[in-house]
Design a protein that fits this description.
Tumour Suppressor Smad4, six-stranded antiparallel β-sheet
Amino acid sequence: MIGGDGSFHEMVNGLLSRKDQKQIPVGLIPGGSGNSVGYDLGLFDAKEAAARIASGNTVAIDANRVTDSAKLLVYSINEISWGLVGDVGVVAESCRCCGPARYDLCSIWTVLKGTTSRMELFTDGDTSKLIRGEFVTAFVNQTQHFGKGLRATPAAKIDDGLMDLCFMKEGTRGEQLEIFLQLPTGAHQRHPGLSFQQVRELSMTPAAKCGVLNIDGEIMRYDGTVRVQCVPRAFRMFIPPDCRGPVDRK
């Protein structure tokens, strides 16, 4: 398919929703404004992307299954976010006329608002790891990137059976802006205000029992506790065997 992260998200969800559970390898020629999946795979040229598909080599890729208290919401192939990062996606979606620059503009605007979200968060079914309080933001990635080349979770791999969680409980507006400036290179992973974990599943219970999440750039409503589970080898993708992880653009 030719498209961006949103189109790829829709295609994968259609594939994983098949009643016969038939696996059909998928290919991607990046043509969106963010192309986070493409960044992870070093896909920047349509001709090269088409050649990779034509090679016929496939690799099994993970996906994240998102449910709330009532039902399955969706499968995620990129990022799930709430709080500050989620708000950026919500606002950016209404500013497509600004092109890729909308991510930077909306990030600054959201930081200046200075809002936090109260919730409880625990991982891998272990309530002893419960974290509660006011969160500036939290997000879980399957890929390293989101937005336009922002390397949000530098340790993430798309086929390791894990998802990468990052959260920030407190921080000044200056610290938040500093982190956004470091996102393109991944330098923010050393910031003392951020916490990173690699997990197989997580549960998030917000103080507000319903609201919205940013899932792969799509704004989705939830009701009650949100659970995210990594589904290893969820689908197959046309990728050369030597190109499984993020590739730096040359």
